[in-house]
Design goal:
Largest sheet: 5 strands, antiparallel
Disulfide bonds: 26-43
Helix content: 10-25%
Shape: globular
Radius of gyration: 20 Å
CATH superfamily of the largest domain: Jelly Rolls
Strand content: 35-45%
Binding site for oxalate: 102, 107, 112
Family: Belongs to the germin family.
Distance between the termini: 35 Å
Protein name: Germin-like protein
Keywords: Apoplast, Disulfide bond, Manganese, Metal-binding, Secreted
Structural class: mainly beta
CATH architecture of the largest domain: Sandwich
CATH topology of the largest domain: Jelly Rolls
Number of strands: 15
Number of domains: 3
Oligomer: single chain
């Protein structure tokens, strides 16, 4: 199979951040026998593609939100939909318990647009240094909000009932870094000396935070 590629973003002539196919599609494959390697995945011969490669029913199903953060994210990216490979788009469904949240996090490879389906959400993002300006909004069903690529953002269910949102992201594999999990739940742990200085708190506070289990809601 001959597959033509072009870069969406480049750091240099030889380093590609993301690749898109000039063919109609490039279905991700686990077997390299009849495939080429593109953007972190093998691509099936287009003649072997089937409708199921472009289909996912998981966004229909509500998820259990009985966890410490009160939310669960259902992902629909290239790991669930092989046909998304090289297409530069994915989706998530987020279920929120009453007063649950999707904690502050970033997507290193994607911008996001989120729309509320049920309930009301307090959402926001913080700009980069040095301003660190906070943009926030309360969203109701049918309303949308954009989170720029790489910026810390969050959603919080303000209501006494469950909430549901859908979000589209500008990458087939946007990645997620939950701030608390990364800083206080890293493996191995970040030195307490670093964190006490960074957060200007007593070492006992850092020890307490590092001893917690930081729930992964993705």
């Amino acid at each position: 199979m001959k597959t033509q590629l072009r870069s969406k973003k480049t750091l240099s002539k030889d380093h590609f951040l993301e690749i898109e196919s000039i063919d109609d599609f490039c279905v991700a494959a686990n077997d390299s026998k009849y495939a080429v390697f593109v953007n972190g995945k093998f691509c099936n011969d287009p003649k072997l593609a089937k409708a199921e490669d472009f289909f996912f029913s998981g966004l229909l199903t509500p998820r259990n939100t009985s966890n410490p953060v009160g939310s669960t994210v259902t992902q629909a990216n290239v790991a669930q939909i092989p046909g998304l490979n090289t297409l530069g788009i994915s989706m998530v469904r987020i279920d929120y318990a009453p007063y649950g949240q999707n904690p502050p996090h970033t997507h290193p490879r994607a911008s996001e647009i989120l729309v509320v389906l049920e309930g009301s959400l307090y959402v926001g993002f913080v700009t980069s240094n040095p301003d660190n300006h906070l943009f926030t909004k309360v969203l109701y069903p049918g309303e949308a909000f954009v989170f720029p690529e790489g910026l810390i953002h969050f959603q919080f269910n303000m209501g006494k009932t469950n909430a549901v949102a859908l979000a589209a992201l500008s990458s087939q594999n946007p990645g997620v870094i939950t701030i608390a999990n990364a800083v206080f739940g890293s493996d191995p742990k970040i030195s307490a000396d670093v964190l006490t200085k960074a957060f200007q708190v007593d070492k006992k506070v850092v020890d307490y935070l590092q001893a917690q289990f930081w729930w992964p809601n993705n």
